[in-house]
Design brief:
The chain is of the alpha+beta class. It has a single domain, classed as 2-Layer Sandwich (Alpha-Beta Plaits). The chain has five helices and four strands; from the N terminus they run βααββαβαα. The relative contact order is 0.21.
Amino acid sequence: MPDDGMRIYEGLFLVDPGFANKDPEAAVELCKSVLEKHGATIIRAELWAEQRLAYEVRKNKRGAYILTAFRSETLKLAEIELECRLTERILRYLFLNRDGIPIEKWFKRYDAKPGRSRDGDSDSKPEKSEETEEASAAS
C-alpha cells in the first residue's frame, strides 16, 4: 500500500448542546463541513450522545458529542484543528489516528452506564455473578 499521506482518523467533537438540540442534523453537518473544507473525506458521522460535563466548558454544563470517521492527509490535521478552535459552536475536539482498526469497533452505540438510565436513576439492581456467589459462600 503506497504511503500517500492519507490516514483514517476518528474525530470526536463536543458541540454546544443548545445548537445540537435545536437541529441535530445541522450540528453533524457543521462538523462534516469543517472536515471537508480542508480536504477530508467523510466516512461516517453521527450524533453520539448529549450529557452533563465533568466541568464547565465555555459556560456550558452539558455538551453534545458527534463522532466522525474521516480520511485526511496528515499535514491537513493542523488546519482542521485551527478551524475547530475558531468555530464557536465546537467546544472541544479530539482526533485519533485509527488506521488498521475496523470502524465497527469504535462506532458502537453509546450507553451511559450499564444498569442506569440516561438521567442517572438505577433501573435495576446489579445481578450477582456465579463467581461472586461462590466466593461469598466459601467464606
